[in-house]
């Protein structure tokens, strides 16, 4: 179904981080995250994720299924919606839901004129906007020093440290600050 309706789903911090990593191709964790490991495992054994279906909503909890295929045989696997989305992103698999679920829980998001002018309604736009709005968070390095106070070299060092510490939210903010200066 095409349109401006979005399905807001509340998820945990780990799952949100995993989804953000999948959307932000530039940030690579030093070691594979759980969903990355699942993707590698699946690739090794010839299993593909064909699609994800968000098929039920009960008491605010979404229920999802992952449709997998191996050697022409499809299997349906029950999954938490956050995990299903994280895997769908890694497999470039479509995510579907039913109109009844969208009618019950969907919301309309208005895209800015900049986004509609270039015709890009990619989900990463929403993530980028969220990250840009939160860029005012300050780095804790002995004191309250904002990003603007740091040199490019210091920003790059902080970025490397954030990735090594698996603090991907901070890494994304640092990456954005570096991009603004380049």
From TrEMBL:
The keyword DNA damage applies. InterPro entries: BFN_sf, Bi_nuclease_dom, UVR_dom, UVR_dom_sf. Keywords: DNA damage, SOS response. One of its GO terms (molecular function) is nuclease activity. The keyword DNA damage applies. Signal peptide: none annotated. One of its GO terms (biological process) is SOS response. Pfam families: BFN_dom (PF02577), UVR (PF02151). Residues 149-182 form the UVR domain. Residues 1-109 form the BFN domain. This is BFN domain-containing protein. The lineage of its organism: Bacteria, Pseudomonadati, Bacteroidota, Flavobacteriia, Flavobacteriales.
């Amino acid at each position: 179904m095409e349109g401006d309706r979005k399905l807001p789903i509340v998820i945990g911090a780990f799952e949100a981080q995993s989804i953000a990593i999948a959307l932000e191709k530039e940030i690579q964790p030093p070691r594979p995250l759980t969903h990355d490991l699942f993707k590698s495992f699946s690739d090794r054994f010839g299993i593909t994720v064909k699609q994800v279906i968000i098929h039920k909503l009960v008491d605010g909890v979404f229920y999802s299924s992952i449709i997998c295929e191996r050697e022409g045989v499809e299997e349906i696997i029950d999954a938490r919606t956050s995990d299903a989305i994280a895997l769908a992103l890694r497999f470039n698999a479509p995510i579907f839901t039913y109109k009844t679920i969208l009618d019950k829980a969907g919301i309309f998001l208005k895209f800015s004129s900049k986004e509609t002018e270039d015709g890009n309604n990619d989900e990463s736009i929403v993530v980028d906007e969220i990250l840009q709005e939160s860029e005012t968070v300050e780095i804790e390095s002995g004191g309250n020093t904002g990003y603007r106070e740091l040199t490019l070299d210091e920003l790059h060092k902080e970025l490397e440290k954030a990735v090594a510490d698996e603090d991907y939210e901070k890494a994304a903010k640092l990456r954005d600050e570096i991009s603004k200066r380049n």
